[in-house]
Design goal:
Number of domains: 2
Largest sheet: 16 strands, mixed
CATH superfamily of the largest domain: Gcn5-related N-acetyltransferase (GNAT)
Radius of gyration: 21 Å
Number of strands: 16
CATH topology of the largest domain: Aminopeptidase
């Protein structure tokens, strides 16, 4: 019964996890089915609010024990309404589920014009921590890179981790660091070093999927004059850029990267608000966002609306 509802609402979903949506795509039904595999920690944990044959669904992206969770999608898209009651209980249920799984924060990325979702997230205690713009490079031939005289762009490795962490701490505002932890070094990630003294001045975190490549750049202002050449070198490191789109997520604290990215021909999308809510304080204070029968995984609100993990 729940799977039929998920299937029916899938075409009306609101995607709130930009990285996953652009690199892998989000299929609510597939994600829900994988999440039901016992002990596997696959897919996206899915919560359902039922109202007869209709209802609402929400999914989170999270691996057990990770400090950060992400609301992956909501369906159907929240519309203008005088009463957000069921939506509030669903969002609170997602936050509580993330906290129980070990997440300290939960994030949702919303386009600026999604006014009703803005109101809903604010109503449930989310705060805008940053703005971001996604720049897109269409698949196509990779042009030759400009020369870099004093800098070297190379694949990142585990030995770089401490210096990458120091760079992240220096560039990302302390408040945002709580909600935007440093991504793990993965295949395709790059570092930018000064030739000779090996001083680290840049890190480009890469997340690759079947639909595209998402880059989160962390470049020190000292490379401002060379930023365009650095980004051009980086694109040349990813041969799949010839057949897959490449995206750069530019947060407001790195807004100066708009100029070199635009010079390379990348197209800016609409600005997004990055909403964040902390889960740890609520858990430690014993405040439950909804009344819960935790032993059986069934969440029941005071409004008698049932919120249940997908069956």
């Amino acid at each position: 019964m729940d799977l039929a509802l998920v299937r029916r609402l899938a075409s009306r979903q609101l995607l709130t996890d930009t990285t996953t949506a652009l690199t892998r795509g989000i299929n609510p039904l597939e994600s829900a089915l994988l999440a039901m595999v016992p002990m596997a920690d696959l897919g996206f944990p899915t919560l359902v609010v039922r109202d007869g044959d209709d209802g609402l669904i929400g999914q989170i992206r999270h691996r057990v024990g990770e400090r950060a969770a992400h609301i992956a999608c909501l369906a159907p898209i929240p519309l203008e309404s005088a009463d957000f009651g069921a939506w509030v209980h669903l969002i609170d249920g997602l936050v509580y589920t993330a906290g129980r799984r070990g997440a300290w924060t939960i994030t949702a990325e919303i386009l600026e014009h999604e006014h009703e979702v803005f109101k809903l997230l604010r109503k449930t205690g989310f705060i805008v921590y940053a703005r971001q713009t996604i720049f897109r490079r269409a698949p196509g031939p990779i042009r030759n890179s400009s020369s870099l005289d004093r800098l070297h762009v190379r694949p990142a490795n585990e030995i770089d981790m401490m210096r990458v962490q120091a760079l992240h701490t220096a560039l990302v505002p302390s408040l945002i660091q709580q909600a935007d932890p440093l991504p793990e070094i993965s295949a395709g990630s790059l570092v930018v070093e000064v030739i000779g003294d090996r001083r680290l001045l840049g890190y480009l975190s890469a997340i690759e999927g079947k639909a595209g490549l998402m880059i989160k750049p962390y470049l020190h202002p000292d490379v401002y004059e060379e930023a365009e050449a650095i980004l051009e070198h980086a694109i040349n490191f990813w041969p799949k850029a010839e057949r897959l789109p490449v995206y750069f997520a530019v947060r407001s604290y790195q807004d100066w990267l708009r100029i070199p990215l635009s010079s390379l021909g990348l197209v800016a999308g609409d600005q997004q608000a990055v909403f964040v809510k902390h889960t740890v304080t609520r858990m430690e204070n014993g405040i439950e966002p909804v009344r819960a029968t935790l032993e059986f995984g069934t969440l029941v609100s005071s409004a008698e609306v049932s919120i249940e993990p997908l069956r």
